[in-house]
């Protein structure tokens, strides 16, 4: 495990000498709200340079007031008036539209928390990274869409990418700075989601309500649907490959329904270290916010005796073909992960809008990858701009393809 210094919130800020300046991208989401909860508990330890949201002006204004942010930016340009009005009488600066989001992302800060959902997080996160800002990465789509340019840029600018995704955070802690050459295997655990014990036929017919009921984690809708089909674990394997510079063959997934062990590292001498915690995102978020100083969180403490038994299963690629697809995409490399990510976002949207069935998500993503391989769209993007260009092309195609299947698709699903 990484060496740690246990500290109360105030001693942690004292250890740093001044409050740590944070930019919070995706401040109104599930990760964003958990981050705000921790920031509010330690007003002396942190100051907030900017908060960013997507469309919900009222929610963003509440968050901005709660953490006394200097600037609030909302991606939806038409929400400017509502945000301005909701923040009237405060000193909080207001901006709207994609440029304002970038303006927020590049504000002077010690740490940028990247918690926007989907490829919408790529441009602002990258803008911060390119300036050498340390980034706490919850948004896994950044590394799936543009992993190679992100890692190259982090190396060039000296920016640190701190893993906030719970499995990657556990692995980061379990690694404890060990020499990568001594690592034989990295294992990500997966809860198995709501369909862990369902038949393939039942999973194919799953409704949005069923897919949105996660047994262990309360998360935003996109990642919850990704988790139900284990596409989330597939995205996380690609994320781990980039974050830890580990070969695809050394990466593993084990299903662990209790979500207590989050990640494991197996070393060349047979030792295995693991990261454990109660399933509460405030644990990995706090680890990143304070790093390398440990903060105090109100997260439930792990009581292994009360839990009694931890169980583990092999993932079932037959019932969860998205995991196999993501592994193939990781092995295929190039621009395939960019394609997978974009097609998946549109397919999940279409599923939630009841335009396609649950099994239509992975089917569409596989078709999009095949098409991109054939026509050259899947060649490796050499920059984030190129990756976002591919992302845009694939989204447009996926929207067209899934709109076209709507009429016939829904008939076969009923
Ligand atoms: P949510 O859907 O709960 O929140 C998404 C956030 O992104 C909201 O603040 C939303 O604003 C904002 N947003 C959406 N679109 C845009 C845009 N175009 N520009 C700017 N902001 C935008 O998602 P989660 O918090 O669940 O997940 C966030 C990321 O973290 C995802 O990448 C996910 O995979 C990852 N993650 C999440 C975990 C979790 O426990 N939730 C665990 C590990 C990783 P608005 O509210 O206005 O729409
Ligand atoms: Mg995770």
How are the strands of the largest sheet arranged? 4-3-2-1-5-6-7
Taken together, the total number of domains comes to 2
* Sequence stretches where pLDDT stays below 50 over 5 or more residues: 1-11, 407-414
> Biggest sheet: strands, sense, closure?
7 strands, parallel
Q: Class of the largest domain in CATH? A: Mainly Alpha
User: Helical proportion?
Assistant: 40-55%
Oligomer: single chain
Key words describing this protein structure:
binds magnesium ion, disordered N terminus, binds NADPH dihydro-nicotinamide-adenine-dinucleotide phosphate, Rna Polymerase Sigma Factor, Chain: A, disordered C terminus, 4-stranded mixed sheet, Rossmann fold, 2 domains, 7-stranded parallel sheet
């Amino acid at each position: 495990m990484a060496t740690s210094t246990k500290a109360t919130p105030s001693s942690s800020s004292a250890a740093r000498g001044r409050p740590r300046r944070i930019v919070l991208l995706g401040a109104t989401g599930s990760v964003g709200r958990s981050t705000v909860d921790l920031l509010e508990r330690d007003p002396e330890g942190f100051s907030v340079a900017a908060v960013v949201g997507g469309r919900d002006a009222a929610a963003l204004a509440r968050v901005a007031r709660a953490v006394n942010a200097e600037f609030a930016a909302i991606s939806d340009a038409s929400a400017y008036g509502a945000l301005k009005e909701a923040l009237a009488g405060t000193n909080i600066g207001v901006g709207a539209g994609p440029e304002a989001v970038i303006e927020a992302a590049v504000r002077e800060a010690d740490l940028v928390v990247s918690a926007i959902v989907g490829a919408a997080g790529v441009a602002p996160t990258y803008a911060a990274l390119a300036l050498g800002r340390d980034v706490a990465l919850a948004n896994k789509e950044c590394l799936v869409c543009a992993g190679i340019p992100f890692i190259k840029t982090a190396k060039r600018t000296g920016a640190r990418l701190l893993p906030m995704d719970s499995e990657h955070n556990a692995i980061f802690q379990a690694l404890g700075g060990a020499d990568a050459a001594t690592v034989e295997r990295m294992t990500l655990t997966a809860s198995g989601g709501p369909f862990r014990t369902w038949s393939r036929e039942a999973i194919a017919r799953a409704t949005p309500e069923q897919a949105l009921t996660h047994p262990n984690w309360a998360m935003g809708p996109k990642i919850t649907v990704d988790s139900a089909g284990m596409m989330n674990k597939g995205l996380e394997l690609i994320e781990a490959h980039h974050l830890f510079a580990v070969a695809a063959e050394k990466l593993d997934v084990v299903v662990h329904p209790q979500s207590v062990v989050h990640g494991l590292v197996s070393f060349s001498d047979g030792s295995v270290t693991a990261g454990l915690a109660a399933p509460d995102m405030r644990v990995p978020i706090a680890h990143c916010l304070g790093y390398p100083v440990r903060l105090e969180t109100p997260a439930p403490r792990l009581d292994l005796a009360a839990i009694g038994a931890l169980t583990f299963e092999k993932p079932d690629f037959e019932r969860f073909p998205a995991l196999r697809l993501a592994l193939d995409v990781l092995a295929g490399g190039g621009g395939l992960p960019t394609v997978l990510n974009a097609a998946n976002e549109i397919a999940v949207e279409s599923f939630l809008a009841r335009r396609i069935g649950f099994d239509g998500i992975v089917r569409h993503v596989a078709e999009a990858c095949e098409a991109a391989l054939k026509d050259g769209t899947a060649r490796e993007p050499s920059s984030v701009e190129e990756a976002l260009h591919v992302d845009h092309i694939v989204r447009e195609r996926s929207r067209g393809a899934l709109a076209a299947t709507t009429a016939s698709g829904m008939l076969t699903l009923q």
